[in-house]
Design goal:
105 residues, mainly alpha, two-stranded antiparallel ribbon, 2 helices, 2 strands, 62% helix
């Protein structure tokens, strides 16, 4: 008797309409999560790209500023190191020490 009553209660609760509502809620929830996650990933990627471009721009500005002063510009990549100098400065006397100073944005 008790099992039959429980079965009837469960049957009333679980009908097609409730199942459809449940499936729609889960689908909408998953869709919202997917969209938010995708937008977050795009935001992070864009921020990384902006930071990278800023670093490239700052490096180029530093090289140009140092080269305009006819100072040797050290370029280091891992264990390789060279010093470059502006071509127009090759006839002038160059300082023995490179000028290293931060760039003010």
């Amino acid at each position: 008797m008790i099992l039959q009553n429980i079965g009837q209660i469960i049957a009333k609760i679980i009908n097609k309409k409730n199942i459809l509502i449940f499936v729609l809620i889960v689908w909408v929830g998953f869709s919202i999560f997917y969209i938010v996650h995708d937008q977050w990933q795009r935001f992070q990627f864009n921020q990384i790209q902006v930071a990278y471009q800023k670093g490239v721009s700052d490096t180029i500005k530093l090289l140009i500023n140092q080269a305009e002063r006819c100072a040797p510009v050290p370029v280091i990549d891992g264990d390789k190191k060279i010093e470059i100098i502006k071509v127009g400065c090759s006839h002038q006397e160059t300082p023995l020490t490179p000028i290293l100073e931060p760039i003010n944005p």
